[in-house]
TrEMBL record:
Organism: Yinghuangia aomiensis
PANTHER family per UniProt: COLLAPSIN RESPONSE MEDIATOR PROTEIN, HYDRANTOINASE/DIHYDROPYRIMIDINASE FAMILY MEMBER
Domain Amidohydrolase: from-to ranges: 45-551
Record's protein name: Amidohydrolase family protein
Length: 570
């Protein structure tokens, strides 16, 4: 008598092996059999006509603060995710003295667009050192497992104080102290160390993330702590990949290649296609492969779709901002604002005012796409605001104005920016197919007012494996593998990521025909009633974590089997 049997599904086991018809048995939180016609169970899940996959392992999230108050870690939980990794991009909350909390919140707010009010009001603190942070998380009961990394921003601030926060050079004693704390964190169960080197990552006071300009002796000194610990990933948000310096990415890969060789640990960097240098990503693919051929563990974290902006009348940024008549109405509640904007004299006044320099409309009008009942993550030029304006013989801002008032001011728009220089997702497909790429960069929990890419896991199946019409698809088995076995393996999570006997019973049962991400919407459900963008999903028949059913048809069952995942535990 098994604890649970998922019966009659099509098993896509996460390894890349061909799909097969089989049942999956679960006992004591582990998978015990994958075979046809398994015996009786205390609980059954009927998976006839559905896919059965491992749970998604999302290695790039920013739930560092949210994990202290939110048991569900929304919106990731609605998209089949059963394990998340935090501490990315060099920002986090440990180690941290009590008088440094405000600084780290402001750093997270500036870099990851998480409202400072929500963090101040929502976060529960109970640590100073990184091991104490892990112990705090170990006491949490969550809907999914959480692992975390020690990040350069809080580390540098903790060791160097104001000098570290202001990116002054580290002394040999500073480096030794940072390395000792990283080693302590790794021994306690950190999954890795992260740093940011892009000038796009700044605190709300405009200061780049501590460590942005760290010299090689600092980076290699900290990396040596991972070598000594014998586990963990050295993750980099590199300079230049977003277009701020065309020559920087090649320089970055060069030192990361040397670092990986020196410490014998994986070095992973985030990679996107920039508009300024649209072919540069191919050079980086080649350089990363050359590093692999030379024996260096250099990996690319790549996204499953374009990175860009979402906007509506409810979001912080949109193309009507900066026009005086509109800005005078911006503080009104949405219903009152929409009523004013529908007045003919107000409309005429706003449209008569000049478009602000470098506005979203002037910069990306040919990419602004209104979102309907379904979200098309690979829109064509013909779908854009400018193309629509041309067809109607009207000015783009007039068309935008009218569209933004639809759905009572809640009409959402998308602007694909990075990974979309050619107006399609072919560069993303190349990246996903590269043997040294891992799926990530969804930033779940972050950029609350501008993106909602926690749903990227769902898009991997709906767009890449099922619906894509503007180019070749990806095999279903590969799409699943990129989100499960590959991501788990990079972080040494050997007990999950595949449907094999003995591994952890983290699973999804998915009705692929019904699977869809809802259009993004704004909710005011963060602490302090702060807004954020969220997306729900249809088609996840069941999600299972450690053998317990956590979601049925998108609704939480009440189960909270998720725990802290500590690295280096075999």
């Amino acid at each position: 008598m098994h604890d649970l049997v998922i019966r009659g599904g099509t098993v896509v086991d996460g390894t890349g092996a061909p799909a097969l018809a089989a049942d999956v048995a679960v006992d004591d939180g582990r998978i015990t059999a994958v075979a046809p016609a398994l015996g009786p169970a205390r609980r059954d899940i009927d998976a006839d006509g559905a896919l059965v996959t491992p749970g998604w392992v999302d290695i790039h999230t920013h739930f560092d603060g949210q994990v202290t108050w939110d048991d569900l870690l929304t919106p990731a939980c609605w998209h089949g995710v059963t394990t998340v990794v935090t501490g990315n991009c060099g920002v986090g909350f440990a180690p941290c003295r009590p008088d440094e909390r405000r600084r780290l919140i402001e750093l997270m707010e500036g870099v990851e667009d998480i409202p400072g009010t929500a963090l101040h009001e929502g976060m529960r603190w109970g640590w100073e050192s990184f091991p104490e942070y892990l112990d705090f998380l170990a006491d949490r009961r969550l809907v999914m497992d959480v692992g975390t990394q020690i990040s350069h921003g809080p580390l540098r601030t903790y060791v160097m104080g104001e000098r570290g926060a202001r990116n002054e050079p580290a002394t040999p004693d500073d480096i030794a102290a940072m390395a000792a704390i990283v080693r302590e964190a790794m021994d306690a169960g950190a999954l890795g160390f992260t740093t940011s080197r892009t000038i796009m990552h700044r605190a709300i006071d405009g200061e780049p993330v501590p460590g942005t300009y760290a010299a090689e002796d600092e980076l290699f000194g900290i990396g040596a702590a991972l070598k000594a610990a014998g586990h963990g990933v050295f993750e980099v948000a590199p300079a230049g990949v977003a277009g701020e310096d065309d020559l920087a990415p090649s320089r970055e890969v060069a030192w990361m290649r040397r670092l990986a060789g020196a410490i014998g640990r994986p070095v992973a960097y985030g990679m996107t296609q920039s508009n300024a240098s649209p072919d540069l990503y191919r050079d980086l693919l080649a350089e990363t492969q050359a590093a692999a051929d030379a024996g260096a563990e250099v990996w690319m974290q790549v996204a499953g779709r374009a990175t860009g902006l979402l906007f509506s009348l409810e979001t912080t940024f949109h193309p009507l901002r900066g026009r005086p008549t509109f800005d005078a109405l911006a503080a009104l509640p949405l219903t009152e604002r929409v009523a004013k904007l529908r007045q003919a004299d107000v409309r005429a006044a706003i449209l008569a005012e000049p478009t602000p320099p470098r506005s979203l409309l002037s910069s990306f009008g040919d990419r602004i796409v209104p979102i309907g009942d379904e979200v098309d993550y690979e829109p064509s030029y013909e779908d854009s605001l400018v193309a629509r304006a041309d067809r109607e013989g009207r000015a783009p801002d007039a068309v935008l104005y009218d569209l933004m008032l639809e759905r009572d001011g809640r009409r959402m728009f998308m602007i694909p920016i990075l990974n979309y220089a050619s107006g399609d997702l072919e560069p993303v497909r190349e990246m996903l197919l590269h043997p040294r790429s891992v799926f990530g960069l969804g930033d779940a929990g972050a950029h609350c007012a501008t993106i909602c890419d926690a749903s990227m896991t769902t898009t991997m199946l709906t767009h890449w494996a099922r619906d894509r019409s503007r180019g070749a698809k990806l095999p279903l088995e590969l799409a699943v593998k990129k989100m499960t076995a590959d991501t788990a393996a990079l972080y040494g999570l050997r007990d999950r990521g595949a449907l094999r006997p003995g591994l952890r019973a983290d699973l999804n049962v998915i009705d692929l025909d019904r699977l869809r991400a809802h259009p993004p919407e704004v909710l005011y459900d963060l602490p302090g009633d702060c807004p954020r963008l969220i997306q729900r999903a249809d088609g996840y028949t069941a999600t299972v974590v450690a053998g317990e059913v956590t979601f049925r048809d998108g609704e939480h069952t009440g189960a909270l089997p998720g725990r802290l995942v500590r690295g280096g535990r075999g």
